[in-house]
Design brief:
homodimer, alpha/beta
Chain lengths: ~325, ~325
């Protein structure tokens, strides 16, 4: 089985945007009383939104199962308050649950969290429990910067996050470290904010003893680990200068990179540098880059093709990359 | 000649820190009247600070000339106000000038700018002119985030920066895009803030028409271009999705990466992916990573060794990397 650990519902029917527009309009009206509102989307609309996108690409590219979550840039935790974020998250997560119920062999669910700037992440525990215990979700996306590019929250290694981590450990679910849209004009959402957040999170993990406190806590750093594999020597050197553990020991059971790197030389570097036990196949499809690479004639985000063309990978390595590691990181995945 | 485009005076005599300590103490005293103060450093102290560090490494590694600037993390533009920053910059730049006067065959000078959060960069024109016209400097380090990790300035492509760019163009000097110390606990200075800033700047350049307005403006993005070469496919794809020019056309005469990447696979990726005309040899020596790589027995930041071991580089490519491109980007370099 080939498991894609990184897919978002970027093609959701327009009813989702209608809900969000109505919610945002309410925020601008001082007399508006926040309410959860309703999402008007039919099962047929869901089917249609997937058949010509994620499902088509699964068939064409030969992947089987996508670990699927709400659109990352749509989380926009910086908008409104914790109630805004809760209502939006519940709708988005319910929608993902419907996708996974309609296509139980193609999608398995990961949830968005109702984070909000300045609100301790313990406020997300209830929604995580609902998604995992009631709806069968197997993980969550955790935003290290709910402010959307202003980076006002404490680092992921701060005790601020610990109550939420305790729940993750109890439920045995991992988190993908995933920021959302940037509202800071310095950062392009998918071009720099995403990649920066990946690099930032890794360095936070490198400089603290989080995994001594939580030996079974697991994070996936998406987008191939941001800038980290390219600068692996820098990070090995910094760790050594600071008397920190070897990187391979530091990440062994706790930090994993996906393969959302959109050209062969980048994928080759990733597979050469990062231990094979710490890489999960992912494509971010349908995601940040939608086009076809004129140099290859194939979609930029068809990352399976790059991996398939790395001839020195053993069969055992491929098995880990495409399935085994995902099953280890997401033990609630039972398919 | 082998020109290292990226060296900082990280080993400055303790008199520099004494000046800075006194300046910072003054900031805490409400009765203190800011004054430029003095820097008590002898020529012998300067010689000693370099002989067992940068000069030793130049000899050992076989490099000839370092394009040399004040310690980047020491700029700390977020501390104090524009006057604080001006006094500090003037001392740091004068010190670099003394280094270059003592060792005119080993060092050529690049200046720190008196940036300050919320202060338009036009306030740096005078110090740039002083350094270039009076002291023979050949470039500057431009900090895209004087707030030190809060990213409160407009993007580098905003007209906010244009008056300073006009002066850079007039003087025909390039800028290395280089942030300073992070005062945001999310960002480790050399581990994530530096790399993030590189990635951020590139994406800003990709999404705007800055180089249509300034066809001869030149930036060096240090640390191997941050996360960019590793994600080159992502950036090619994003540019295509946004109907932007091809990356190679976008950067051709305006954006250059150095080779501060501290392992061979990273250097190989850089040299394979980025056009050879847009790469300048650099080591950041003595800089972010001070140690010896136990896997090779050589210093992590001895980047010349990595390049030397890339067998497929032609003689012409090596000449560009080590000398030709630097002379093109820094036309005031006359040695």
């Amino acid at each position: 089985m080939i498991i894609d650990c990184h897919g978002h519902y970027t093609t959701a029917p327009k009813g989702l945007q209608a809900f969000r527009d109505s919610q945002l309009a309410g925020l601008k009206d001082p007399k508006h009383v926040p309410s959860k509102g309703t999402l008007k989307i039919t099962d047929d609309e869901i089917r249609e939104s997937l058949e010509n996108a994620q499902l088509k690409f699964q068939r064409e590219r030969g992947t089987d199962l996508t670990i699927f979550s709400p659109r990352a840039s749509g989380m926009a935790h910086h908008i409104g308050d914790a109630t805004t974020s809760l209502h939006c998250s519940q709708h988005c997560n319910d929608l993902i649950h419907r996708v996974c119920s309609l296509y139980p062999e193609n999608f398995v669910a990961v949830c968005q969290l109702p984070q909000s700037p300045g609100v301790p992440p313990s406020n997300c525990i209830q929604e995580l429990e609902r998604c995992v215990n009631e709806l069968g979700f197997i993980g969550c996306n955790l935003n290290p910067d709910p402010s959307g590019g202003h980076w006002t929250a404490p680092p992921l290694t701060d005790k601020y996050w610990y109550p939420f981590y305790e729940k993750m450990v109890e439920l045995d679910v991992p988190a993908m470290v995933h920021v959302s849209a940037s509202c800071n004009p310095n950062f392009h959402t998918t071009g720099s904010h995403y990649i920066n957040a990946d690099t930032t999170a890794f360095m936070q993990f490198l400089t603290a003893d989080l995994f001594k406190d939580f030996p079974t806590l697991r994070f996936i750093i998406p987008h191939g680990g941001g800038g980290v594999p390219y600068h692996w020597g820098r990070y090995r050197g910094l760790a050594q200068d600071m008397n920190r553990p070897l990187l391979v020991d530091l990440i062994r059971n706790n930090v994993f990179f996906d393969t959302c790197v959109y050209h062969l030389p980048g994928i080759e570097l990733l597979l050469k540098i990062v231990p094979m036990d710490n890489i999960l196949f992912g494509s971010e499809m349908v995601g940040a880059v939608r086009g076809i690479d004129p140099e290859t004639g194939f979609y930029f985000d068809d990352t399976k093709r790059y991996i398939d063309s790395v001839t020195w990978l053993s069969g055992g390595d491929r098995k880990k990359l495409f399935e085994g590691n995902a099953r280890r990181v997401y033990p609630r995945l039972k398919l």
